[in-house]
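1st attempt posting a full record on here, be nice pls
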Amino acid sequence: MSTLTSRKAAKLVLKAKLSFDAIQDERAYRGKNQQSLTALYRVCVAAFASGKNLIRCMEHFVEDIDKGVARCLGLKTNKVSDTTFYELFVNTHPEGFLSILWKQIRDGVDKKRIRNDVFPGGVVAYDGKGCGSKIGSAPNDSCRTNVCDNKGTKFWNLFALRACLVSSSARPCIDQKVIPDKKGEATTFPLMFERDVKRFPKLFQYVTGDAGLASSSNAQLVTSKNKDYVFQIKGNFSVVYPKAFSLLEAEQVAASTTERYQAKTVRREIRHVAVPKEVNFSGSTQLLGVRQIRTSDDGQIITEDRVYITSIKLEQLTAKQLLKLIRLHWIIENGSNWTLDVVMKEDIRRPCNKGNGPTNIIWFNIIAYNLISMFRACLPKNGRFYQSWKRIIELVYQVFVCQKYERKYLQQSFV
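the predicted structure (as tokens):
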């Protein structure tokens, strides 16, 4: 295959060779031939990244992978039963996954696989995401419980707040926190943001979030760390929103872009105005209005308006940069969230719904997503575009199953 050399394939294997020492092995000892926890977790990441995220498919994946790759991942043999994977998901506590995710991101930054090549300064988007649901009682305390009909039928679901570095072409998820019952995005954000700043103080300057995160207290927290925020506001801001909308409507268009998307011409316009004194929102400097006008080929026009509040100073970014920054926020929806749902089937396909299984699996999903997203960003583009996610999943599977590696590449560090 022309775009995938043995060297690139070997690098991908090394990226999958993560250390899972932070996870406590709670399995019962079953003899000297028992596979190590680290080896099994590495296989889980490789299998998820290859689109094999059902337990029986994972068993077959282990049988199919190249023996040299199996040894590199730490496996003793190419035999791991579906029962082993099931017990692994159910019984292993998810505590420790965050440190593994952070090590993956730090390694990517240090090796320059993750860099702010899309927007200078760095932008992290925070957004909540549903990670699957099922009829019945919740398998663990991380899951939310509710009823789905007037008969009181119970169902559970997993919901998490995720952070994505949207200013990088690799678009990695850098953090995740499950939101249990009676908690929301706005109250979960402070803990995530503070630990992200502490862990990656120089990785990003700008923070974006939708209306679920917008609050004066969250704004104050962001500015207290010498970062800038861009929060969307909606009609539930009964004082700020109507005032902002009327002020912005009177302003001239400061910048615009036009593109073709799904047989429509899409024009986006941005207006901005200084925040008036009567608007009490911590650290705010500007109100931003983005109007999106979709015109279909038959002349039908659909207009959508969004309003934002930001701490970015008037002279800090141009209007075009502000428009790009706002557009970047939706990469967490169109990039990582869409890929996890549509390509990796996170919302509908879970290999285990018992015990700690659902919570463990969403960690494997984002670690595997990061692996394939960094791999995708390193491959040649198809014209102006990156290769499709479906194609990337296929290439990753071929790497683990079909590629033959030169020993010297597997022994080298990823550069």
